């Protein structure tokens, strides 16, 4: 008799025994038959338990109270909660195409050695989630590499909170081990979720798939079996989500990181990006997410292409689902406000829309703690980063510009339109100690509003002794540095191919582009280059290598990414080798 038949008999016998007990009809079996019955019943129970383990995530720690009394709370969402969550993310009418995009995007690193530090995007839509996570992953890989090599448990402190700011002279991404990348990803996930939870708690969303006939074969891990069981999963409604979703709340960072690592296969699976977004939303709390937003009636995933909204990106970057990118909040009068970024951030954000004058990114996002930015275009999110944190240090010229622009923006009630009133002008002049001649003040005040570009030109022509920025030396503020741009969407590489079962196909991989950025000492490249001859003549008798470098005009290349970079460094001139960097 085969093992399966034995187990089938055992199950029937165990059920029969229950019926006999209920009816009082229990026969006096021999000792041998009773022993056989118990063995078969035990075997059946073990098989049922094994089957359940195959299709469930890794178990919680054995005690409900772990890590010095910090509680782990695990539960299912109610039907009402699941409906609120589903409608908040996708709206009440969502296409199957959008759902397919969000249910088929895992959180996985690139297999290409050059871009091995990068998360790959295969479907359009979830790029906002992946780009924000990518920014944090780079933070840990570049600036916390020593900690990633440590095998012991992560200390129960703020994740990535070290203030060290050292130069990374170069980085060979191809040399990254899988363990280092995994720890960088897990810490990034933990930091984001605790930030969403106000640094008090984090919610981790997992899934439990009902029995579906997936068998466990020798040589196949339980993680692989679980991932295979997701292949037939269809999420087309709130009820579909509620049936499989499980949420766990953690107050201990160490325990949360352990749980994330134990279930990393689930986040690497086809539902990974969606699960992490759900984790972030629940960590913040659905009520708080809605109160963060200016218009909570709109879905967080935008139609018709299913792109992540700015609210999703801001939630992951700063822990609040606000829809705007300016600093603080804007008073519209009558008790109405538009909400922006409320505090300094670890990694920042730049957008092409600012170069098109559709919005104004505030200093919180433009000058993050680490030189890493999510870059937004009209339809995609990518990541820009540097190896040297000192590129954010302001020289005299930039420091003065920041001071004046901050004072101007504080008086700008147009929502980033770049103009202020006459009274606002006088306030800006007082706060920045600019001694503008009365004739210039009257000239600017001839109209009802003072436009930033006109005001700034006056400041550029005003001598430094009067609080302006006119510098006869032309040596103020020269900077040269390198930036890297990563686009995680997998595209065909025309310069390479890979062999797949005997046939060649285009190599699908993300792109990493190195840019050389030069910021001239004048406020526009044209003005700088017009002064080259003057600067060269004045320094003809000098042998300073610095002056020679400053007098040398830079070649320039253009791509939409350069327009984004110029919103951070207004006079930037960028060059690169090969194809231009793509932000779409």
From TrEMBL:
The segment annotated Disordered runs over: 534-557
Q: Which superkingdom, per the lineage? A: Eukaryota
What EC number(s) does its UniProt record assign? 3.4.19.12
Its EC top class is hydrolase
InterPro entries recorded for this chain? EF-hand-dom_pair (IPR011992), MINDY-3/4_CD (IPR025257), MINY3/4 (IPR039785), UIM_dom (IPR003903)
The UniProt entry's GO biological process terms, in alphabetical order, are: protein K48-linked deubiquitination; proteolysis
Q: Which Pfam families does this chain map to?
A: MINDY-3_4_CD
Any single GO molecular-function term of the entry would be: K48-linked deubiquitinase activity
Recorded hits in PROSITE patterns, A to Z, give: UIM
What ranges does the record list as Low complexity composition bias? 535-549
Q: Does the keyword Membrane apply?
A: no
Reactions catalysed, as given in the entry: Thiol-dependent hydrolysis of ester, thioester, amide, peptide and isopeptide bonds formed by the C-terminal Gly of ubiquitin (a 76-residue protein attached to proteins as an intracellular targeting signal)
* UniProt keywords, alphabetically: Ubl conjugation pathway
Q: What does this protein do?
A: Hydrolase that can remove 'Lys-48'-linked conjugated ubiquitin from proteins.
Q: Which family does it belong to?
A: Belongs to the MINDY deubiquitinase family. FAM188 subfamily.
The protein's name is ubiquitinyl hydrolase 1
Source species, please?
A: Lupinus albus
